[in-house]
Amino acid sequence: MSGPLEDCVAVVDDEFLIATGLTMQLEDMGMRVCGTAATADEAVSLAQAARPAVVLMDVRLAGQKDGIDAALAIHETVGSKVIFVTGSREAATIARIEQDHPAGLLFKPVLAWQLREAISAALAS
Amino acid sequence: MSVQEWLFNPAGMTPHGFCLSWSPSLIALHVVSDAVIGLAYFSIPLAIAEFVRRRPDLRYGWVAYLFVAFILACGTTHFMGIVTLWAPAYGVEGLIKLLTAVLSIATAALLWPLIPKAAALPSAAQLEILNQDLERRVADRVQDLEELNARLTAALEEKIHAQQAQAHSDAHFRASFESAAVGQVHYDPVSGLILRANHAYAAMLGYEPEELAGRLGSDFTYPDDRDSTSYGEMLHGSGASYAREKRYLRRDGTPVWGRVSASLVCAPQTDKPLLAVAVVEDIDEGHKAQIALREAKHDLEIVVEERTAALAQRDLLLREVYHRVKNNLQIVDSMLLMQARRLTDPDAKAALENLRGRVYALGLVHHQLMGSKDLETFDVAPFLEELSRHLLEGAGRAEVGLSVRAAPLKVGLDFAIPLGLLVTELVTNSMKHAFGGGPGAIDVTLDDVEAGEVVLQVSDNGRGYDPAAASGGPSLGASIVDGLVRQLRGVLTVSSEGGTRSVIRLPAPVHA
User: Fold this and answer.
1) Which residues of B200-214 are buried (b: 16+ CB within 10 A; e: fewer)?
2) Interface probe with A: pick from B315, B325, B327, B373, most Cβ of A within 10 Å
3) What pTM did the predictor assign?
């Protein structure tokens, strides 16, 4: 964790259309999106490069690692607030998320107001 | 002078009466007195003689006879006194007196030495005491004998009784051994040979009892179950008895399950084993049933395991499906959003926003299902609360108050999706048309009334709006509401007094 974070949001989701939809909703709220990533490794690289204040993180990602692994790495190396966006609500997954310093937890389908509230809460904490 | 003269008239003497001058009174006095004395002297010895004759055991009886002779002689002298009053037979008289003198002196002489001997004889009183003593001793002895006799009789009876009882108990034992319903076998404890076996045991193995006697007991145990450990322990004193379940060998070579309880009979003093006694119960049917039950239970456990695994698999698949449905709805939502950003026509944009609201309702139903235990049903109340809150937030109408009150009701996918869409349409309509941009209140209630009916009410306090009366025919929202109410076999009534009130009566959802 070195230096201040940028006032922007990184979006991590292996579904292009979901990543794009979230990006548009964020832009409609007047926020800057600093990039999207589809795998855990890409997400960590993006976060380290762009240093976003907030990361929207999907749990299931393409590749070996999932969003929780990526979130842990980002939390340790960058310090961004991570809001999980998941289609799952299995107890095991939720328990893992809870251990990983989540700044928020949203269930798909996510709506604009939910996103707004979650980001406000994350930035305020 | 002749003897006769000397005897009867010696020397011509006068009779004695002459001396008395023949005085009649004197004569009479002498005659009567002598006669009475003579008679008495004859009577007394006769009485003595009679007495002695009757008591032949009398000691010194001869003295009595001396007395008899002596008194008789005395009596005779008195009679001779009478005779000599008239006849001068002084010779006879003198001879009789001489005889009397001899007899009396002899009696007198013999009597003195007899006194100490006679005095030594026990008196009658002494004899009485002796007699009483004797009688008492006799009585004691008789009593002793009677007691002894009674004891002997009792002992004899007891012995007879014991013999009878023994005979009885032997018979009982034989009968109980022979006819017992469970198998009974007696073995020689050392050789292990069968001494006797009853019918039940023989029948269990397919033999007659007499065929088994003399054969080795272990020959009738199924080869795999021949384990002599328990028997050996019992024989060598580490166990008084043992019981185990094992297979026996039938005549036809098939096994039969039995439960054997064996014990040793030992000699009381030496503790030397005399007899091994075994009671064998045929438990073949029970055992087979138990084995069958175990197998059935095992099979059942496998089935349960498979079912459990299948259920777990099904749950996993369902979660995966719900997850994918939600992901896909998110994609649809994203596409709608992307499309809406491209449109400039406000009506078209609003239509797409409405679509996004309906898509959200579908997603929310799947979200509730994923969180439910059985993955099939969930409580309708939290669902309606979250849905309504989203509609209000999504519309950005902070000035409109919304209250939701729902009775606890379990719903599944088939009921929840049309219900969620109905609430979405009705609440959206109220927000769009009731308040004209001003403040207001919307109430959503779901009541679980009796007779398997639920009532959904969406009401507002706005200016009233009848969807059917809208210009240009029924709107898409109104068509959706009508269609979904029909799908749920419900009835919709709308009133517009003091705001719009839509009441939908629906059959309660039925779960398998």
Assistant:
1) bbbebbebebeebee
2) B327
3) 0.54
